[in-house]
Design brief:
The chain contains ten helices and eleven strands. With 293 residues, the chain is α/β, with parallel strands linked by helices.
């Protein structure tokens, strides 16, 4: 059996965060403290965990962070006012509204209300346009940026490679496809989605296969071209009575059967997940630099 190379997102993220810490120290010397505001509406337990770990990471890097927790009953207007306040606040360089908000909130309108210069999630239409235009002053969404960073650090050649991205969300699939096809990466990209015909055949073409769907262990061994690089973005909770929590995390790839066929693969957890927060910190530094220059 082939032993694939495990792309250790935890280790790569630790290196990125160390660099962020040093860059934050250099900004401190100029009287600038990078500041990130995270807004959480409602009490979704997974969101609370994410928000907590973002605040902790900020503290470790010497960033200023502000956590704003609003009740689930917060109106659209009240949330817009909070965002406008943060837009105008010079201590805040990055603004993130934790997704998903309660159903009565129009998430798209909230994203559009964030000052694009502080939109460290990279979801504002102005930043989406900059991604398409390959303008480096824009903010690249954190999870796709993390996937690209993992590939780069591992020295995986993307130029001319057949890349298949499963999933077309604005958070992962679409921006990742744009990054792969950019002049920096030069891959040949196929975007597959829920309406694609014969997904296994599309995947078998891939030198680099990226799964961003949200379906546990959907990608099977016979979908893989031997020697492919597989990036598993999926984070799924599946019931597991042997765990204290009652569940375990699994990706979109059937890891046990797929890994032996791969040249390299990301584990879940410990692959793409840790990269996302590291990229958020990088984006916040970029915002602090750009807003201060
Ligand atoms: P999403 O639900 O917005 O999008 C899922 C995409 O998968 C859609 O574009 C859909 O067309 C496609 N899809 C659905 N069923 C399919 C099928 N049967 N065949 C082919 N394509 C299908 O999800 P998302 O926000 O893009 O997240 C995807 C996964 O990545 C989730 O598991 C999520 O938890 C995970 N995620 C992880 C991170 C991280 O930090 N690692 C960050 C964001 C999302």
């Amino acid at each position: 059996m082939n032993q694939p190379r495990i792309l250790d997102g935890k280790a790569v993220a630790a290196t990125v965060l160390e660099a962020c810490r040093n860059q934050a120290a250099a900004l401190h010397a100029q009287g600038i403290t990078p500041g990130l505001a995270v807004v959480l509406v409602g009490e979704d337990p997974a969101s609370q965990v994410y928000v907590g770990s973002k605040a902790r990471t900020c503290a470790e890097l010497g960033f200023y962070s502000r956590k704003i927790v609003l009740p689930a009953t917060t109106s659209q207007q009240q949330l817009l006012e909070v965002v406008r306040g943060l837009n105008a606040d010079p201590a805040i360089h990055g603004i993130l509204v934790q997704s998903p908000p309660p159903k009565h909130i129009d998430e798209e309108a909230i994203i559009r209300a964030i000052d694009p210069r502080k939109d460290v999630d990279g979801f504002h239409p102005e930043n989406v346009a900059k991604l398409v235009l390959e303008d480096p002053t824009g903010f690249v969404p954190c999870t796709p940026a993390g996937c690209m960073n993992l590939l780069e650090v591992a020295g995986i050649a993307t130029a001319g490679a057949e890349a298949v991205v499963i999933g077309r969300s604005m958070i992962v699939g679409k921006p990742l496809a744009l990054l792969l096809v950019s002049k920096r990466a030069n891959a040949t990209v196929t975007i597959a989605h829920s309406r694609s015909r014969d997904l296994p055949a599309i995947c078998r073409r891939a030198d680099i296969l990226i799964a961003a769907v949200g379906r546990p262990e959907m990608v099977k061994a016979d979908w893989i071209k031997p020697g492919a690089v597989v990036i598993d973005v999926g984070i799924n909770r599946v019931a597991d009575p042997t765990k204290k929590s009652g569940y375990r995390l699994t990706g979109d790839v059937a890891y046990e059967e797929v890994a032996p066929l791969c040249a390299a693969i990301t584990p879940v957890p410990g692959g793409v997940g840790p990269m996302t927060i590291a990229m958020l910190m990088q984006n916040t530094l970029q915002a602090a630099r750009q807003l201060s220059s």
